[in-house]
Write a structure and sequence with these properties.
Helices cover 50% and strands 7% of the residues. It is built from 13 helices and five strands. Strands 3-5-4 form a three-stranded antiparallel sheet. The radius of gyration is 21 Å and the shape is globular. The relative contact order is 0.12.
Length: 260
């Protein structure tokens, strides 16, 4: 005897339902992914394929569960989540313990009526409705709004990391912002990704921002390719600050406000 898989729409013998997640081969050639560290690549792939994922791209998962699945400690998980929130790839509701993946539909979208019905059913169960706005467009938009969204999508496709994330993360607001934004947008996706990865280490190496390069100099010289010179300290008890639940919540609020 055979049973029907409501989700995938094909016959599976012995009443076994096959649940799998697609990872397109272009995933590994995506400029954003190429710029990730091995740890970030593993965690991003985990978010896309773990057994809590749903067809709609929003699912409940606790930090404790993520620690158990990956073997990372809580602080590492929080740092990774915060990184992917800041790069606009995910949003995590600390209140409802729900994860939303921005690019889920890119690799898992389907015109199948059964799949669409499954997605609609799952969306009704989402507790934090802001997450739905984060992933899906509303069907009530006018044609003008739809055209505007298409134009915005084209711009977003060209810039993988918004200038505002660089401006805020670099934390030295000196120079003509619009001019700097044009320089930032002219970089390749990989260059922007490498710059964001470098900034966190640069800030640790040069904690006093008055001694950091001005943003224009940083961009003109592509300083993320420079070697970092760090001071050696004899204080072995110094521990890097941990990511708190409040920081995760603030990142969620900041990102979700853009979708209200």
């Amino acid at each position: 005897m055979k049973s029907k898989c409501d989700l995938l729409g094909f016959q599976i013998p012995f009443f076994i339902m096959a649940i799998f997640r697609k990872v397109h081969v272009t995933f590994w050639r995506d400029e954003f992914v190429e710029g990730l560290t091995p740890e970030q690549k593993f965690f991003y792939l985990y978010l896309l394929t773990n057994d809590r994922t749903t067809q709609c791209g929003i699912y409940e998962i606790t930090i404790k569960q993520m620690c158990y699945d990956t073997g990372y400690n809580e602080d590492t998980i929080k740092k990774l989540i915060l990184y992917f929130i800041n790069t606009g790839k995910v949003i995590y509701s600390e209140h409802t313990k729900e994860m939303a993946l921005k690019n889920w539909g890119k690799y898992n979208d389907s015109n199948s009526p059964k799949v669409r019905a499954c997605i609609e059913k799952e969306l009704l169960k989402v507790k934090d409705k802001v997450l739905i706005q984060y992933i899906y467009s509303m069907d009530t938009h006018t044609k003008e709004e739809e055209e505007q969204e298409k134009e915005e999508d084209k711009e977003q496709e060209q810039v993988n990391i918004d200038f505002e994330w660089f401006w805020n993360d670099y934390d030295k607001k000196i120079g003509v912002k619009e001019k700097l934004k044009k320089k930032w947008n002219k970089l390749t996706d990989l260059e922007r990704q490498n710059a964001m990865n470098y900034i966190e280490l640069y800030k640790l190496a040069v904690p006093d921002k008055q001694f950091r390069k001005n943003p224009e100099t940083f961009l003109n010289n592509k300083s993320w390719n420079d070697e970092l010179i760090t001071r050696i300290t004899t204080n072995t008890n110094k521990i890097a600050p941990k990511i708190t639940d409040q920081q995760l919540h603030e990142a969620f609020v900041k990102r979700s406000s853009e979708w209200k």
